[in-house]
Amino acid sequence: xxxxxxxxxxxxxxxxxxxxxxxxxxxxxxxxxxxxxxxxxxxxxxxxxxxxxxxxxxxxxxxxxxxxxxxxxxxxxxxxxxxxxxxxxxxxxxxxxxxxxxxxxxxxxxxxxxxxxxxxxxxxxxxxxxxxxxxxxxxxxxxxxxxxxxxxxxxxxxxxxxxxxxxxxxxxxxxxxxxxxx
Length: 182
Prior knowledge:
This protein is of the alpha/beta class. It has two domains: about 1-30; about 35-180, Glutaredoxin. It is built from seven helices and seven strands; from the N terminus they run H-E-E-E-H-H-E-H-E-H-E-E-H-H. Helix 4 links the parallel strand 4 and strand 5 (about 115-120).
């Protein structure tokens, strides 16, 4: 009987928390995690296509960060829309793609559809990678390196609409990429 009571209580608590998260999406990320609006992104050590490690400072010009992992299927399917975004913000924002891990990044560097500046986080930037709760993630930074806006997930549905509105552009569909991907 006690076990049944505990099970019923657990089910009730899970339902309550699920409804709370649906109505207050900010609770989906644990407090203190993730990149938050108004936060300054400090300089990061990153590795370029040639393997050279350099410090990348996000101050000086507005920047769009596209954060991904090479093994993420949605990150791969997102590439046509990412390339469209990169082209549409050129001249207004610097566009930087950042892989959060090394595995499979060589293939990304060789992929002709992956344009622009693509880097891998250097080992000293591991703490930054832990602050990215989901990939793909897109982050708009001011010229002072301040987070203006973040978008979590592939460029579909509400995420796509929000990015299109924010940047005043029309993104390529990821559906075409999905059909072409295995």
